[in-house]
Amino acid sequence: MKKPGRSMDWDGAVNAWHVAGGVYRMGRREWLTEAGWRQAYDDGIRTVIDLRNEAEAQRRDTDPVVGRAAWSGMVVVSAPTEEPGDPRFTAVTGPYLNDPAHYPENARLFPDKLVGVFRELAAASARGAVVLHCAAGRDRSGMVAAMVQDLAGDSGQDIAEGYRRAARGINERYRTHGPPHARERYLGEAELVPLLQERGEAVAQFVRSLDTRAFLLDNGLSAAELDAVRALCGAGVSR
């Protein structure tokens, strides 16, 4: 098992990290090459959970050409964290979630969606390791990863650092490849460092205020499913 917080060097993967136990995170799966899929499989990945909305799950012209056989032996499931275009949410976040200050609103408006993600994690635990991904691998992945780290018993500092690593990872992608649209841009160190300090603290505060375990149980995750997720995270069962 890889050390938590380690960058994963799957070929083509962007912003890929080990979160806790058998849980990993990354940006778009379409960035992976066939070699990258084989490497992920060799690292034990058997389930890919796509946190994006259905319309986002498309190949781009710049993505590598990869046949479906590349992820043979893995299960790919869709588990969006939000209702796309919900005006209550976009009034707070704008077109998409890109700030941990808005994670609590995501949890408030779409608790069933987040429980759905953890239900998929519970189901995946019987197959092997799991990689979560959104588009950039920063905020939707970051929100769920922080909840996973909370269940795993990580400290607030570790949870904050998990977000900061991923935010740095996609920022570096923007430096080398350019941002995907005008709402994103590459940030130099003078601007990036204080922003990451603030946002990392916001992520840690989110899970501490949420109480991940209670939130999931109160919103329909079963105790058995929670135990399966905790075991996947390397935390054992909750009693």
TrEMBL record:
Domain of life: Bacteria
Any one GO molecular function term: phosphoprotein phosphatase activity
Record domain Tyrosine specific protein phosphatases: where: 112-147
Pfam families: Y_phosphatase3 (PF13350)
Official protein name in the record: Tyrosine specific protein phosphatases domain-containing protein
InterPro entries in alphabetical order: Prot-tyrosine_phosphatase-like, Tyr/Ser_Pase_IphP-type, Tyr_Pase_AS, Tyr_Pase_dom
PROSITE patterns the UniProt entry points to: TYR_PHOSPHATASE_1 (PS00383), TYR_PHOSPHATASE_2 (PS50056)
